[in-house]
Amino acid sequence: MTVAVQWPGGISPRRLYGKNQLGIVWGDVGMTNQEMKQRRSRQIARQKRQRRRVALGLAFFIVCLCTVTAAAVWGNLKQSGEPSSGTGILADVSGKENAGGTGNSQGGSDQRPGGQDGSGQPGNMAGLAGQTGQEPEVPGQKGQEPSGLAGTGEGIGPSSGSQDPSVPEAEVRTFLPPPSRETVALQHELPPKEVPDMGALYGIYVHGKGWSDFFADNAYGMAPTDSYITGIRVTLHNQSEEMSGTIRYRVNLSGMGWLDWVSNAQEAGNITGDMHLEAVAMELTGELAQHYDVLYSVLQNNQWTDWVKNGEEAGQSGVGLRMDGLKMSIVKRQEGQESYAGNIDPARPMVALTFDDGPSGNATPRILEKLKEHNARGTFFMVGQKAEKHKDLIRQMVRQKCEVANHTYDHTLMNKVKPEELASQLERTNQVVSDACGVTPVLMRPCGGVKNEAGMGVVGAISMPAVLWSIDTLDWKTRDPESTIRAVLDHVKDGDIILMHDLYDATADASDTIIPALVERGFQLVTVSELASYRGGMLPGKAYGKFRP
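The structure assignment produced for this chain is given below.
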């Protein structure tokens, strides 16, 4: 069964692939057989011409090398028989500097003692000595003389003019011929292929309800408390167009075992049946597999499994346990280092800065800029009405790997509305945010921290945990930056969830101090989902105020 996939953020299957499964580049598609043969013939002829040019260039270089070497040997035989103090033809026989200058080439003309123009006088050789004075351009060194050129005693190229009688014959240097431009270029390695940050986007099929929206990298995708997962689909976000490969995955379906591998937003599972998923495995292909790791964990028997990666199985299969949630992260591989979801080191302290009631046009951009400056992330619990007015800020949050979260549509207290109204507000806000940035919130915060049993039942039924806090800055009340700063820095501990509001300039002022101060103290500033991922995880319908180690 084929399902149309909505590609968030402008992602398309064509962008995700450099080549198709047959290895045909996209420009080849649609060619006739005759056109393909003609194109191939032209390619073969071009390759032959290139090989001939390389062979001729190599032969010419060898001839030059032999000629200069023979001349050097003949010159040594004509000398008075004094032994050389160096080894090889590049050695300075006397160990002294070449008379006549410091080795600075100036515009291609030799600079000689006494103002002579170089006729019969040794000295500093411009460019490649004995040539026209024009230096070959070395990549990355335009206008600079490569080390080992004329005047340093380790130059390249024979000196022109007759020998100066004032210089002992034993001090005459000999040189190898200058390298060609092609040789110089080959000596410089190509720069390494850029490896940008890349993430996963994934959705789950909930039995009796349908496909979820896409979840962001390292966020939670969980079934409601009254249902379960029967399918998944995964794609990539921000994949480099210069790298081949994609992501592929397979699932273990209850009663059927492991299904075939599928890739790139294709369905894995059985969305038309009733059987639940038990386990999952994922891996990257092509060049992506050389530069990235994919890590993932599943919710099973009300517990999140340990992170596994790159084709390993997450979840127990064949024992009747169902898979009720999935979280995954794609990170750049670091040579000789362990990979962690979200590039977060679980051994280091971490806290989550959270901002409520926004976004706003005054404070939110400033807070985002300060987070970006310090490579930090925050969680924004947004009111739907305001989110509709600031969709550009929501997209910026996602670009900076901050977490977008739900604070109802119009700041409704959980105990003041019927469950149906609360559900409508949460679902409406989720849709606003998803429409703005392509990913859906997975966390909610009860307005005012007020919760009741009926409301938490609604929260669980739409697959969301409720997030409270362990430090309340009271920034909404004091509107004083110093008070907010003290509330955080005087009390913060590993695992805290800190409450602020991105409505006030005073909060943005306080954030200018709080964010760098926490980083300087060694805290990792992470999202709530990231904090929870290494501290036991979260479940739908449950409330969390902190995550201690």
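Interim note for the steering committee: The chain has 13 helices and 22 strands. The CA atoms of residues 359 and 390 lie 7 Å apart.
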